[in-house]
What does this fold into?
Amino acid sequence: MFNPLRLFRRKEHIDDTAAAYIEGRATELEQVELDRRAANEPGLIEDLDSIRNTVSLLRSIEPVEAPRSFALAEAPVQVRVKRPKLALAPAVFAIVAAAAVGLLAVGNLADVVRQSGSDSDASSPTAAMTQDSAFAESSLAPDESILGTGPASGGEPDSENFLATGEGSRASATGTPGLLPTTVATDSSAFETAPVEIDPPAPVGSDPEDVQSLVPPAGGSSSTEIAPAGSEDGSGSQQAQELRTEDGDMTSEALPLPQETVIAAIDSGAEFGIANPTTPSLQEDPDGVALPLWQLQLSFASFAVLMAGAWFLLHRRLTA
Amino acid sequence: MHQDAVFSVALRMVRNHATAEDLTQDAFISAFRNLRSYRGGVFKAWLMRIVRNATYDHLRRTKRRPETSIDQNIVTFSNTIESGERSPQEWAQSGELGEIITGCLGNLSEDQRMAVVLVDIEGYQYDEAADYMEVSIGTVKSRINRARARLRDCLQTHPEHLPASMRLGSTEDEEK
It folds into this structure.
């Protein structure tokens, strides 16, 4: 089978033989091979002879001596060596990685400080509210809840009963559950239902007219005794009042709260009686963008790892 | 110690004394500055690689911007070319032949010229030349064979300057 490699190797062998003849070091075997080849190729020997004479001419060229000493003096080697462009890159990467780690640590520390600060402040804004809630609950009739009658409702706020607790009584339906115990009027005529500019989702079946005013009445009720919180007579501590209707039935208590507190609580949109609206679960950004801290930390950590890896690779390459 | 060898190679390659001196000096400076990259082995081979690269770079630069001055006396012949002393005429002829050889060397490619300079002019072995050129021995042989053939053809265009033994058909004429 024809193998072109054999042809290439044979040609190489012939060239080696010819080179040996040209250089005058051909062995007997090589000489025989050349003679055999020359028999098939006329002019081969003359060709090789001419090349051999050329090589002899080249070898007769006299060697050249250096015209002077090339020993290095101080001046030629004092030329400032250019620093490679990437020589400072490892240091830059190391600094950036260290800065990223530092920011990460600062971020963690700030988060810890903020958490501890928020925990300490968690109780004060809602103290009044929770206290009020406690008072509200404690003064309710056993069969009534702050949401109105209906223990049988299974704990779910009963919208209908929510609006009617006892005869002639009205429950506040601000549509902001979990917010506050609100004032409950035993007699609608006893209160001036001043319009409140809120936009809550009204409960089912609610009547706008049923929305109780959150503003303490200008005048006292003829049929109730209410001691507003923080009243001047210092009876603010007696916030749990037993309110009795004209019929003498117990109703949901009225907890006259300061107007500012109530409105602020409503505006914050917290759930009715559940959460403290002033305790955000996320870091709120004024622009409305919530940035979970753990994502920031992960980004910084990834960046630091990348910078450190790049520094290591560049350092190895430049010092290799 | 290696100055002569380095300078000789540089001179044969660039065919200019001033340029050869500059390249030789640059090669030694470069060797000094990059001494930390020397991994052992034959120091001369490492040095020859440096000067080889320097000459290649110079030739490529001058190829784009050719220089007009070329020394014509870089080749002088020893007395071995012909037995006995030579007459002034023979010396003159040898000078002219040196110019022809210098010109014919310039017609070769850089790789072929380097192979011929190292093996045929400087007298290095094939394995040494392969080490200096950082190629295989087969490659060196191939380049040398082609270079020799081209030099022979170039010299044959000036038969009047060639020694009698080199002229084509000279033996036939003598026989006749």
About this structure: Chain B touches chain A at residues 3-4, 6-8, 11-12, 17, 21, 24-25, 28-29, 32-33, 74-78, 80-81, 97-98, 101, 116, 120-123, 138, 141-142, 144-145, 148-149, 151-152, 155-156, 163, 165-166, 168 (CB under 8 Å). Confidence is low (pLDDT under 50) at residues 170-176 of chain B. The helical segments of chain B are 3-14, 17-33, 43-64, 88-107, 110-121, 126-133, 137-156, 170-175.
